[in-house]
Specification:
With 135 residues, this protein is mostly helical. The chain is built from five helices and two strands, in the order αααβαβα. A two-stranded parallel sheet has the order 1-2. Helix 2 packs antiparallel against helix 3. The longest helix is centred in the N-terminal third of the chain and has 41 residues. It is extended.
Length: 135
């Protein structure tokens, strides 16, 4: 029994080390994202913070290379949240959502697609969400 507790304690320490490593990598990623954002500012790059094509390409690559017991859908969700969390470092990310009143499923769909980080606001019509070319 004592050996079993020691093994569990060792495994828990290993999990803690992995979690610490994940945190370090996320902070390292944030640093690189900040450097990219600065490079874009210096080059007057006005591209959108969220590049859907690049995100989809990365997600496909992750899914193709994914192995192990963690479901690919969970990995995809984690990836989406990482992108969502780091995108505002490039510039503001606002989501306009046209949804009937009290339609939580629309909000959940937007959160599922864009992640939890971007600011979302409901708008009264589809057209209110569209950019106006003359403004």
């Amino acid at each position: 029994m004592n050996e079993n507790h020691s093994t569990l304690a060792d495994l828990r320490r290993e999990i803690d080390e992995i979690d610490d490593g994940l945190h370090r990598l996320l902070m390292q990623r944030a640093s690189v994202v900040m450097r990219i954002a600065e490079g874009k500012r210096q080059q007057s790059d006005t591209s959108l913070p969220i590049r859907a094509g690049r995100g989809a390409e990365i997600l496909r690559r992750r899914c193709l290379n994914h192995r192990g017991p963690l479901p690919a859908a969970v990995m995809a969700r984690l990836r989406r949240e990482i992108i969502s969390a780091f995108s505002p470092l490039h510039g503001p990310v606002d989501i306009a959502l046209f949804a009937p009143r009290k339609a939580a499923s629309y909000w959940e769909l937007a959160r599922s697609h864009f992640g939890a980080s971007p600011m979302a606001a409901t708008v009264p019509s589809f057209w209110a969400a569209m950019p106006r070319p003359c403004e």
